[in-house]
Design brief:
alpha/beta, Rossmann fold, nine-stranded mixed β-sheet, three-stranded mixed β-sheet, 14 strands, 33% helix
């Protein structure tokens, strides 16, 4: 059986990827490499209302294995309790530590990523997403055993459709003629001019992965570097509380309002299984796949999320929230709100803002994508049949651990 390495395995997507790998009979040991140890079930059952991430509250690991600190816990969560999962703690930019974790591995799933949207942390995000990817590529290039590198990218690297719609004074006229696919030109209308640092860092990291001049001759669809651009993922094991806070605001009716854009919703477990298919497929026609989902406006998404809360089942048509008497927040107003949140975080709270200007502009886009290639070659399912399950399973996972 194959031994694999997963970077960023203690995050939301990482947990689901490790869980899917445990169910695959082609996989033996799973090496997980991350900066933070996985949260324990005890920690999860006493959800930290004062913090957005379970990872940041996880206990310190004990022991060392050369460059990697080894995590042990009397109360591991259900995934990391499995003896086939070996955890290595270290910084993604530490080549020696990552090399140690990669020993004996055949496949490297590079799922590590910093998804924050706080401009004060832009340099840290660049170090993790870009320099960390450079380190992973070096480890892949030098390893005598690694044969395939699966990189978890994001549809955010693709940019938007109509650049003129995002100029100041034209925020209210956001339209898109169709969902973007892998043929969308790399040079067209990126989010780089939005101040959306996450997209910029992932874009540069993906460029490094897909550029054969940046690494060795292992590049190629049949034995090298494969990129999967994920859409907006929902589902269980969201230890970063990405959607937990939103569920909470919908339940308490404290949501300020709804962004005027849209997104492509998918089930995190399906994206994880597509990664595994890409890792073990003997041949692939391409080295790039989009695993997005059903394209919907944020209003449609938020109403669907609220529908899983039992107390709203008979009141699903009522306004979700609003500021200045608005349910849908115009892009210009959301942009100003993003600046307020950013300044409040920088000069008052000292914690990550709810939104910042770059994210505000991004969430005012209709970011729609097409996953036909992944459906045809990786067995990625039609998400119109799965997005409802993604929302309900996400909420049930939170609820079972005391988040609500």
């Amino acid at each position: 059986m194959t031994t694999v390495l997963v970077t960023g395995g203690t995050g939301f997507f990482g947990h689901n990827l490790v869980a899917a790998l445990l169910l695959d009979d082609r996989v033996g040991d799973i090496h997980v490499y991350a900066r933070n140890p996985p949260p324990t079930e005890n920690r999860l059952s006493r959800w930290a209302i004062d913090g957005r991430s379970m990872i940041s509250h996880a206990p310190e690991p004990v022991g060392n294995s050369e460059n990697c600190r080894v995590f042990q816990s009397a109360e591991p969560n259900a995934i990391f309790a499995n003896p086939r999962v070996l955890f290595f703690q270290g910084d993604i930019c530490d080549e020696a530590a990552l090399t140690k974790a990669a020993e004996g591995c055949t496949v490297l799933f590079h799922a590590c990523g910093d998804t924050r949207w706080w401009n004060a942390k832009n340099q840290e995000q660049w170090e993790t997403n870009v320099r960390g990817t450079t380190t992973a590529i070096k480890v892949m290039s030098k390893s005598p055993t690694l044969k395939r590198f699966i990189y978890t990218s994001t549809v955010d690297v693709m940019g938007h459709y109509d650049v003129d719609a995002y100029k100041p004074g034209a925020y209210e006229h956001l339209t898109v003629d169709g969902a973007l696919d892998e043929s969308w030109s790399w040079g067209m209308n990126s989010y780089c001019d939005f101040g959306y640092n996450y997209a910029s860092t992932k874009r540069e990291a993906e460029r490094l992965v897909r550029n054969p001049y940046e690494h060795d001759t292992k590049i190629g669809a049949n034995g090298g570097y494969i990129v999967i651009r994920a859409g907006s993922m929902l589902g269980p094991w969201d230890v970063t509380d990405q959607y937990g806070r939103l569920f909470g605001e919908l339940k308490a009716r404290t949501l300020a309002g709804i962004p005027c854009g849209g997104t492509s919703v998918c089930h995190v477990q399906d994206v994880a299984r597509a990664h595994i298919m890409a890792a073990f497929a003997p041949t692939l026609e391409h080295d790039l796949y989009i695993c997005a989902g059903i394209n919907m406006t944020y209003r449609e998404l938020f109403r669907a999320m609220r529908s899983v809360l039992s107390e709203y089942r008979s009141d699903n048509s009522a306004p979700i929230g609003g500021i200045c008497g608005r349910d849908i927040i115009p892009a210009s107003l959301l942009w100003y709100y993003g600046w307020f949140c950013e300044l409040y975080a920088n000069y008052w709270s000292g914690s990550e803002p709810e939104i910042n200007p770059g994210l505000a502009r991004y969430m005012s886009c209709l970011a729609y994508y097409n996953s036909d290639r992944a459906q045809g070659e990786l067995g990625y399912p039609e998400q119109s049949l799965r997005w409802g399950e993604a929302i309900s399973e996400s909420y049930e996972w939170y609820r079972a651990r005391g988040r609500f």
